[in-house]
Amino acid sequence: MASKQITDRAVNHVWKYPDAKLISLGIGDTTEPIPHVIASSMIDYVQALSTPEGYRGYGAEQGNKELRKAIAQKFYKDTGITDTEVFVSDGAQCDISRLQLLLGSNVTTAVQDPSFPAYTDSSVIIGQAGDFDDRNQKYRNIEYMSCGPQTHFFPDLSITPRTDIIFFCSPNNPTGHAASRVQLQQLVEFAHKNGSIIVYDSAYAVYITDDSPRSIFEIPGAKEVAIEISSFSKFAGFTGVRLGWTVVPKELRLSNGFPIINDFNRIVCTCFNGASRISQAGGLASLSSDGFKAARSRIDYYMANAKILLDAFASLGLKVYGGTNAPYVWVHFPGLSSWDVFNMILEKTHIITVPGSGFGPGGEEYMRISAFGNRKTIVEATRRLESLLP
To answer: Ranges for the Aminotransferase class I/classII large domain (predicted)?
Structure first.
């Protein structure tokens, strides 16, 4: 809903100011070209499809075995995760919905507050969420775990009720916070104690610059309580190419001892015909030595953008979070409605942002600023922001 409101307001703004050059720091979409070493692999694969020798039809629903091995080796080398536990998909957001189909409507759910809206929205669609309470802007059957600066962007698990499922994103979208090893150890212990399953979103893990864990499976005991989803979208610039993966460990079992990986495999084989072979060729290339190095250069570029934006908002005397382990800056405007701030920024600077309330009630008074953009545009945005506050 927030994305539609943003689009509508942007369209109205353009009608009002037809000569204004709108800058978008809102949507988390990559902007830099896919590295040639990765794109050329997809071109070669497409050309091969036009030959009798190179043509391929349906592939395995679980993904190309070579790619599954490469993902396990690159991202889970020291965790014990194997290629058979990796399921390649058309993106993390699609896998969120497939996991909801696996989990069903009778489970209880907890989400970070604020957090990526797809966790809550998919819960609504599958029938888990219950009625919406206008007074507190929450769904009655969803537990909202406060993850603001007052709790170091991590829920107070001592007061968090037990739920069947815990959606957890690190680095977090929108706050940019990467959970520490100690925090994730607490989360895994909490899940063990309560018999909960953690659905862990690591889509931005490649942006981590400190020693925070890149995967939940770096934590002992996580394979018995967690599923991890991730993506090539923000890593290799595949937002339009579409490629992701989900890891379901063999150790993760239902209360009756049945392996959850078997059920997820059935969901995948029933609801999915496999990721595009072309996308998978690009994914494999991005995990090669040259491909990974090229993809890393794009990540460094976006993180340099984040530093520029972080400094710009801090220079206005505002409290700024994020921007060090994720390509998002989370800016606090105390006492102000996030939609009012959105309108103020748009009106004064012709810049599109995202109101924090779109990520849950805990996002009120905050704005999410995306560092995905051309450097020249980012610098121009910071120049315009100088006029934001008196």
So the answer is: 21-385
Percent of the chain with pLDDT over 90: 97
356: left (phi over 0), alpha (psi -120 to 50) or beta: alpha
Q: How buried is residue 71: exposed, middle or buried, by Cβ count under 10 Å (0-12/13-18/19+)?
A: buried
Task: Count CB atoms within 10 A of the CB of residue 8.
Answer: 10
Element (H, E) at 296: helix 289-314
Q: pTM of the predicted model, to two decimals?
A: 0.96
How far, in Å, are 17, 83, 90, 304, 307 from residue 239 at the CA level?
Answer: 30, 24, 10, 20, 23
If residue 110 lies in a helix (H) or strand (E), which one and from where to where? strand 109-113
Query: Of 87, 86, 91, which Cα lies nearest the Cα of 76?
Result: 86
Measured CA distances, 153 to 128, 170, 172, 235, 267 (Å) = 25, 10, 9, 23, 33
Q: What is the CATH number of domain 2-30+291-385?
A: 3.90.1150.10
Name the burial class of residue 112, with classes exposed (0-12), middle (13-18) and buried (19+) by CB atoms within 10 angstroms of its CB.
buried
Q: Is 291 exposed, middle or buried (0-12, 13-18, 19+ CB in 10 A)?
A: buried
Instruction: Give the CATH fold of the 65-287 domain.
Output: Aspartate Aminotransferase; domain 2 (3.40.640)
Q: Report domain extents, the chain.
A: 2-30+291-385, 65-287
Q: Which residue has the tokens 């390649």?
A: 88
Distances from the Cα of 53 to the Cαs of 48, 76, 370, in angstroms?
7, 34, 44
Task: Answer for the pair 139, 123: CB distance below 8 angstroms, yes or no.
Answer: yes
Q: pLDDT of 43-68, one tens digit each?
A: 999 999 999 999 999 999 999 999 99
Compute CA 33 distance to the chain's CA centroid, rounded to the nearest angstrom.
Answer: 20
